[in-house]
Design goal:
It comes from Salix brachista. By secondary structure, the chain is mainly α. The chain has two domains: about 1-45; about 50-154, Leucine-rich repeat, LRR (right-handed beta-alpha superhelix) (Alpha-Beta Horseshoe), CATH 3.80.10. It is about 45% helix and about 5% strand. A hairpin with a 6-residue loop joins β1 (about 90) and β2.
Amino acid sequence: MHAEDKFVYKRRLAFVVCEAEGALLRMRQLWVWMLLMALAFVTDRCHCCLQEERSGLLGIKAWFGHAGAGSYWLQGWDKEDLNCCDWDWVWCDSTTNRVIQLDISAVNYYAREDLYLNASLFLPFKELEFLNLSGNRLAGGLKNQGSLLSILFN
């Protein structure tokens, strides 16, 4: 082999090696990208409210239902839906996924009887900052549950 041929051969070999290394790098980048996308999808699917708080919301719905209040307003609160942060009248903190606001006003608006509030229904909500129960014809019972209400609003 002549010196010129050796030089051309080495250049072609170097070019092929660089192409292979480039392809391998692109393949690695593709795998990293696919892994990040998969993790983002899985992470996004897991942004659900806490089980304790979801159970608490379902307990509130059941309490209004047993009390004869119209469950129409809370029919979107479904035990099959794991993300109660997407439910009507429920707002969650975007970082902790804890319920921070509940606006369940006028659920009992058209009922014929007043409701006696069971404040312990709200104990699962450790970061609740806003609670609207207006228009529910709530009566009595609050005097006996002062300690529970102080926990709720502290």
